[in-house]
């Protein structure tokens, strides 16, 4: 059983980490601005599902293997960068759309999948969890796997709340985009540039 004061300290750290500019919250911001608040929430759900995968990886020791293996780390980060370049290509080619109503440009499944792939293919998340979670665990409290699972759940809930707030706020930009086809094209170009930047950041990351 993790003490309440430890969980509170962990939750505060998780909030600060979620608020710090990074690939995931920037991704939520751009997708919400382009496709609206509902779309942003679906992306957030995908990202949070990815956190479940990373938490399981830490609990089962897979993250330690990724950290130790240069090949595994390189393959995973190249896959993530490649997916971001694919999204950037689509954003650069996108044309203005009819944005009346609150219907996302993509289906819920497509948006969810974008968030999931974006998070799972970022090896830095698993390695960060591997370094961060053990600081709040203690073998004397019982199962380490159980403690990591609890911390992963707390981190996921905090991330969902913070990222959903980002989605709701940035989704307000869509009202401006609705009446301006030129603005739609511009924001898509900006999103494409952001995706390229995130891809470069992942490619140049080190273990």
Largest sheet: none
Shape: globular
* DSSP helical segment count: 10
State the helical fraction: over 70%
The total number of structural domains is: 1
Point out poorly predicted stretches.
98-104
Order of helices and strands: HHHHHHHHHH
Report mean pLDDT, rounded to a whole number. Answer: 78
Give the strand tally: 0
The end-to-end distance, rounded to whole angstroms, is 32 Å
How much beta, percentage-wise? under 5%
Structural class based on helices, strands and sheet pairing: mainly alpha
Structure description:
The chain has one domain. The protein is 79% helix and 0% strand. It is built from 10 helices and no strands. About 3% of the residues have low confidence.
Give the secondary structure arrangement, pairings included.
Layout: H1 4-19, H2 23-35, H3 37-60, H4 62-68, H5 70-93, H6 108-120, H7 123-132, H8 144-170, H9 173-178, H10 181-203
Helix pairs in contact: 1-8, 2-3, 2-8, 2-10, 3-6, 3-7, 3-8, 4-5, 4-7, 5-10
Quick rundown:
The chain is mainly alpha-helical and 207 residues long.
Supply the key terms.
207 residues, 0% strand, mainly alpha, single chain
């Amino acid at each position: 059983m993790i003490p309440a004061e430890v969980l509170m300290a962990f939750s505060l750290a998780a909030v600060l980490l979620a608020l710090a500019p990074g690939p995931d919250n920037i991704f939520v911001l751009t997708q919400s601005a382009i496709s609206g608040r509902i779309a942003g929430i679906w992306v957030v759900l995908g990202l949070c599902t990815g956190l479940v995968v990373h938490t399981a990886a830490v609990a089962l020791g897979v993250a330690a293997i990724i950290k130790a293996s240069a090949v595994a780390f390189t393959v995973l980060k190249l896959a993530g960068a490649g997916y971001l370049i694919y999204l950037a290509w689509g954003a650069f080619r996108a044309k203005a759309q009819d944005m009346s109503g609150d219907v996302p440009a993509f289906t819920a499944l497509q948006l969810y999948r974008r968030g999931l792939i974006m998070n799972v293919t970022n090896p830095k998340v698993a390695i960060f969890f591997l370094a961060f979670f053990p600081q709040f665990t203690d073998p004397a409290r019982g199962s380490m796997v159980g403690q990591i699972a609890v911390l992963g759940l707390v981190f996921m809930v905090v991330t969902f709340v913070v990222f959903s707030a980002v989605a709701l706020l940035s989704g307000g930009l869509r009202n401006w985009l609705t009446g301006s086809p030129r603005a739609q094209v511009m924001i898509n170009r900006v999103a494409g540039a952001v995706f390229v930047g995130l891809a470069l950041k992942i490619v140049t990351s080190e273990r």
